[in-house]
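Hi F.,

I've been meaning to write this up properly since the lab meeting, where we talked about keeping a consistent format for the predictions we share between groups. The idea is simple: the sequence comes first, exactly as it goes in, then the structure tokens exactly as they come out, then a line or two of notes. No screenshots and no reformatting. I'm using this chain as the first example so we have something concrete to point to.
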Amino acid sequence: MGFGFTGSYFTGVTGAVFPILRTKISNQTTVTVFLLLGFSEIRKLQILHFVVFLMIYLTALMGNLLIFMVIVFDHHLHTPMYFFLMNLSIVDLGSISVTIPKSMANSLMNIKSISYDGCVTQVFFLLFLLVADYSLLTVMAYDRYVAICQPLHYETMMNSRACVQMAAGAWISGILYSMLHTGNTFSLSFCGGNMVDQFFCEILQLLKLTCSDSYMSEVGVIVFSICLVLGCFIFITMSYVQIFKSVLRIPSEQGRHKAFSTCLPHLTVVSLLVCTGIFAYLRPTSNSPSALNLVMAVLYSVLPPIMNPIIYSMRNKEMKAALRRLTGCK
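Output, unedited:
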């Protein structure tokens, strides 16, 4: 088997030439470097993109770290709902750290490349954290269902051991799914170039670069993914149908308001994740890069980690009180 290196070049906006390395094994070409889509070719706009993303990243980091610290250090919040919220904040910290720093670095250094291994790593952790996020939201729907529909059995059904097992199940399901999907994707041959029409390594954009004869092996994984997402969505929907039925049977208006207030943040976060995902993946695809692709990717990959801390703390009296205790404010 003969090995050799073939090279082509990508010219940046400053005139710098970046090599596009491919390793040639027999008659098959293996991509070793991918090129990501930039937000602009104008240097000033690249710096602006870096500054904006830096502010977004720091905001998400501080918000989720604050949620994590408040729940850990305040014993009043050591309940199943806040335990799952703490796990959700860890997921949000990880998910925004997978895509944003690399995009910021590329804009700052005026490059577009990401190594093959870097792309694999990005895809693995993005899928892992996305599935863990969705799984945790499903578990949190079950927690709200038990709390409102079966309050007398809540402490028994949602004991500390059960909560740890459900959280562990969410994390493990993310790892297993990501191993399956990432392994299957990068086992395919890339013969459609190495230009990824997104600011990070996105599965759908990578599949456009694969050979047509090997693409069908991914169909089974995609069908499994759709079934998994629909299953969780149906479970969440049915949980809230039962919750709303129970809440409407509460005689006092104050009791109904309190029950709804504990569900509203979770329902808002689920709606945000589902809506951004639907807009990103169920719209008509295009073979040419567009500003809409970038906007939709920002919505589903960047917006939830920023908004989740705001949503969960804005109308939550317990969280506000815990924040005041932690910061010493009255």
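Notes:
Residues 204 and 281 are 9 Å apart (CA to CA).
Confidence is low (pLDDT under 50) at residues 1-28.

If this format works for you, I'll send the rest the same way.

G.
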